[in-house]
Design a protein that fits this description.
8-stranded parallel β-barrel; binds beta-D-fucopyranose; alpha/beta; 3-stranded mixed β-sheet
């Protein structure tokens, strides 16, 4: 099953419409210097206003599945309390439009746009936020649960915890050092409670979580230890908790909040264990951990995002995308093979994979000719096929992303889309990769 993905704040725009409240990304983007081009998501791709265009594109794209996210501040503008029914109408129209076209809706409940009032009360450092996620999840399920079966609770909680509360390069832009481990725990707890609550109402619901896992390689003498630490924070923290109900012993030595009974209450880890019916894997690049250097970090690969880590740097090899991320399809193959050995009964889905390129070349009709993106997707899809042939239960491949959109701290400067969005007019112009992907998706559906 092939799909494409987007996320609410990155594509919707209309951030004041129909009772939506502010999110931490509205607040963060307004902070001078936070976003590379000084932009924000107030217009984005205009997907909130142009739903019919997006549905037509999805139909044209031949995909069997569309992964999108729901904006918590549209549904519960205060983060708790009364449901804003108007905010759910958009998602209902989206889900109905998908179902009519034979496309499986795959919503993610939380792709980083926390209602600002919850951040004002402590955000993910506050255990209460995990409980509020359950209320919100049930409100969404109440409206859409009869038409949606495949749910993801969180997208990349590593980013929420460590880019948001340690490195400070994502919303809410805080630098709490080791405190960010409490955010990580509350995110996992929130996932587990929300997933259990949905299942209690709906035995058919297939509820998973989406993680940005990757392969971590030591690069050079003395880098084994630092690489093991990075692996613990990036991968094992999440997978061990979800599969075994434990936190990695080596990480516990450093990450004090994870051994604090005031943070990790009795019963929390039991609730987290087994709470995901499926695992979404977002993969873009491997990580190579090297000795500290003077050269700047690649985006998202900042030592500050690994609180308590020994001194280290990241050294991505070539070729690299516009994000500075090394291209290595074998990393995806190794990652999926490893996960399927680690948790053989847990179905996997590649919930994001894709590449940012400058997209300067034009075809005769003026549209983007993006052979690099086609090559990237093709090579990664082939890696997924190999691992499936070897027996791994990988049920979907979902390309990031349908539309060029608001790429978080990078603003509109990094383009991952299969479709270009013309600034100003918001006209959608399919790239060569869109047409290639459509053919590939249709062929996959026929098999
Ligand atoms: C992932 C995010 C997604 C997108 C891609 C490029 O970390 O989940 O929203 O920004 O990176």
């Amino acid at each position: 099953m092939l799909g494409t993905a987007t996320a609410s704040y990155q594509v919707e725009g209309s951030t004041d419409a129909d009772g939506r409240g502010p999110s931490i990304w509205d607040t963060f983007a307004a902070r001078p210097g936070a976003i590379a081009d000084g932009s924000d998501g107030s217009v984005a791709c205009g997907s909130y206003l142009h739903l019919d265009q997006d549905l037509a594109l999805l139909e044209q794209s031949g995909v069997g599945l569309y992964r999108f996210s729901i904006a918590w501040p549209r549904v519960m503008p205060d983060g708790h309390g009364p449901v804003n029914s108007a905010g759910l109408d958009y998602y209902e129209r989206l889900v109905d439009g998908l179902v009519q076209r034979g496309i499986t809706p795959a919503p993610t409940l939380y792709h980083w746009d926390l209602p600002q009032p919850l951040e004002d009360a402590g955000g993910w450092l506050n255990r209460e936020t995990a409980l509020r996620l359950t209320d919100y999840a049930l409100a969404v399920h109440d409206r859409l649960g009869d038409r949606v079966r495949l749910w993801a609770t969180l997208n990349e909680p590593w980013c929420s915890a460590f880019l948001g509360y340690a490195a400070g390069v994502h919303a809410p832009g805080r630098r709490e050092g080791l405190g960010a481990y409490a955010a990580a725990h509350h995110l996992l707890l929130g996932h587990a409670l929300a997933a259990a609550a949905i299942r209690e109402h709906d035995a058919e619901a297939d509820v998973g979580i989406v993680l940005n896992l990757t392969v971590v390689h030591p690069d050079g003498p003395g880098t084994q230890g630092p690489a093991a630490f990075v692996d613990a924070v990036q991968n094992r923290l999440w997978v061990d908790a979800l599969v075994d109900g434990t936190y990695p012993a080596d990480l516990l030595e450093v990450a004090a909040p994870l051994r604090d009974p005031g943070v990790v209450h009795p019963g929390d880890l039991e609730a987290i264990r087994g709470s995901a019916c499926w695992l979404g894997v977002n993969y873009y690049t491997p990580m190579r951990v090297a000795a500290p250097t003077q050269t700047g970090p690649a985006v998202g690969q900042d030592a500050a995002a690994f609180p308590g880590a020994p001194a280290l740097s990241f050294r991505p090899r070539k070729p690299r995308t516009e994000m500075g991320w090394e291209v290595d399809p074998s990393g995806l193959e190794d990652l999926l093979a490893g996960l399927s050995r680690r948790a053989p009964s847990l179905p996997l889905r590649v919930t994001e994979n894709g590449a940012a390129y400058a997209d300067q070349a034009r075809a005769a009709d003026g549209s983007v000719d993006d052979p690099d993106r086609v090559a990237y997707l093709k090579a990664h899809l082939a890696a997924v096929q190999r691992v499936r042939a070897a027996g791994a239960d990988v049920r979907a491949y979902i390309a990031w992303t349908l539309l060029d959109n608001f790429e978080w701290a990078e603003g509109y400067t990094k383009k991952f889309g299969l479709v270009e969005v013309e600034p100003g007019t918001l006209r959608r112009i399919p790239k060569r990769s869109f047409h290639w992907y459509a053919e590939t998706a249709r062929a996959a559906a026929r098999q």
